[in-house]
């Protein structure tokens, strides 16, 4: 199994993007992830799967959990420690879908 660092190294760069917004069905911003230290890895994973899947739904969330690698297991053991991974679990469990906008 690849590590999170190995997986990130395979993703396209996101230079020039500052934040990613998860939008509800009504277009309202429900969450935001910054391309900044501490959340940059999450930003890159979310951006990658959103580009591939045209948003973040169950399939994108499942792929993202694979990309998060060892952090996914840690999030299962420690709910709340990794909120961006917890959100992916929720997307899968509740069959949610978010549109994504980046700036």
Explain what this protein looks like in three dimensions:
There is one protein chain. 50% of the residues lie in helices and 15% in strands. The chain has 103 residues and is of the alpha+beta class. It has one domain (4-102). It has a 3-stranded antiparallel beta sheet, with helices on one face. The termini are far apart. The model has no long low-confidence stretch (mean pLDDT 97).
Amino-to-carboxy terminus distance? 32 Å
Please state the oligomeric state of the protein chains shown: single chain
The total domain count is 1
| Parts with pLDDT < 50 across at least 5 consecutive residues | none
Radius of gyration: 13 Å
- Report the total helices: 5
The beta-strand count equals 3
Order of helices and strands: HEEHHHHE
């Amino acid at each position: 199994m690849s590590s999170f660092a190995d997986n990130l190294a395979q993703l396209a760069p996101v230079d020039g993007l500052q934040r990613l917004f998860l939008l509800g069905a009504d277009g309202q911003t429900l969450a935001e992830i910054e391309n900044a230290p501490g959340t940059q890895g999450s930003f890159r994973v979310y951006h990658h799967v959103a580009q591939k899947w045209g948003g973040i739904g169950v399939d994108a969330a499942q792929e993202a959990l694979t990309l998060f690698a060892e952090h996914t297991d840690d999030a299962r053991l420690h709910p709340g420690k990794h909120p961006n991974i917890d959100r992916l679990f929720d997307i899968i469990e509740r069959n949610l879908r978010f549109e994504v906008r980046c700036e």
